[in-house]
Design brief:
The protein is built from 16 helices and 2 strands. With 353 residues, it is mainly alpha-helical.
Length: 353
């Protein structure tokens, strides 16, 4: 708790860009870590030039789960609030931007001005009900599942968004990429989700090094002790829920315009929420690089397994889900902190304090 108490008494950093850069604390990252991050980013930027369309689609899927894993990590990893219904915010972002585009021709970036506040408001309602009435732990997780199920039922009966028949965006062969309307080839979506993932990583780094980030960690470790030293725990937890919901809704916009079809039964399902959290769980909850590493390991290996089974002509329904369960069980038994903390120790990449 010492660092959290010190954060209460710390002088505020200068406003503007200098404050953002100071809270990134890049000097605390070992040089070897910065070099590896730079190499990884360079490889990802150059990847489309050396990969097939199929591999590019796999990379898009990996980066999608890396982004959503980081958004979920803000709520659980930083603030200790377990959500098992994060598909709610993906669905809100997807349906609102897609419906506005179809009915009114609203560009998705403008549609975000509607979808993000709605997602953040939904998170605020869930957080208010839970934190005001002391719903915590398992019961809070169940509450998040319940709201996702309410949304699934509601959207399945809402004709304006296609109801159970689904919502479909116009699909055509595009010779040019239209980033403003998100109509174009897969390579455009690849660089978009790569940029989103990098920005989310930097934002999480900044948040974790800010005063709010220290408050989140204090609440996560011992909420009663955090309250005793003067932290407004209700507002602190609400901030985590609202920020996480807003970030996740961005992924919903990407999901809608990349896949071009939405079904409430799929978008809001508990399975989608579980897929979001598996990356951070395996990579390392509460770490910055854990959700990214977890997404690469889990999605990459799962897609490799699917490809191998297809090549040998074996059809095993549910093989991917069984593989997910096996990976999670293995990590819990061997590396309960996740893969990234173990990798960081082995390579000497732990952040200097």
């Amino acid at each position: 708790m010492t660092r959290q108490v010190d954060a209460l008494q710390a002088k505020p950093a200068p406003l503007g860009r200098s404050r953002f850069l100071s809270t990134l604390n890049l000097a605390n990252i070992p040089r070897r870590g910065l070099i590896l991050l730079a190499v990884l980013l360079a490889l990802l930027i150059a990847a489309p030039a050396f990969t097939s369309d199929y591999l590019l689609s796999i990379l898009i899927l990996i980066l999608y789960f890396a982004y959503t894993g980081q958004a979920w990590n803000v709520m659980m990893g930083f603030a200790g609030q377990l959500s098992l219904g994060h598909a709610l915010y993906v669905g809100i972002g997807a349906y609102m931007t897609a419906a506005l585009f179809i009915h009114f021709g609203t560009p998705p970036w403008i549609g975000l001005l509607v979808s993000v506040p709605i997602a953040m408001a939904a998170g605020a309602v869930i957080g208010f009900l839970a934190f005001r009435f002391r719903v915590a732990g398992t019961y809070f997780a169940i509450l998040t599942i319940a709201f996702a199920e309410f949304a699934r039922i509601g959207f399945d009966h809402w004709d304006w968004v296609g109801a159970s028949s689904g919502l479909f965006l116009p699909v055509a062969t595009y010779t040019q990429n239209d980033l403003w309307h998100l109509r174009g080839r897969p390579i455009m979506f690849y660089y978009l989700i790569l940029a989103m993932t990098v920005l989310a990583f930097l934002l999480c780094r900044w948040l974790l090094g800010s005063r709010l980030g220290y408050f989140w960690q204090a609440v996560r470790e011992d909420e009663d002790a955090a309250r005793a030293v003067g932290i407004a725990t209700f507002r602190t937890k609400m901030a985590a829920v609202v920020i996480s919901a807003g970030l996740t809704s961005f992924a919903g916009m990407f999901y809608a315009f990349y896949y071009n079809n939405l079904f409430g039964e799929q978008v809001f399902s508990i399975g989608r929420s579980i897929e979001i959290i598996l990356g951070p769980l395996i990579g390392g909850v509460g770490t910055l690089f854990g959700p990214v590493l977890g997404a690469f390991l889990l999605t990459g290996l799962a897609e490799t397994l699917t490809e191998i089974l297809g090549l040998i002509g074996v059809d095993l329904p549910g093989a991917k889900q069984v593989f997910y369960g096996f990976c999670l069980l293995l990590v819990v038994m061997v590396m309960p902190e996740g893969v990234w903390p173990w990798v960081a120790r082995k390579l000497g990449l732990e952040t200097r304090q």
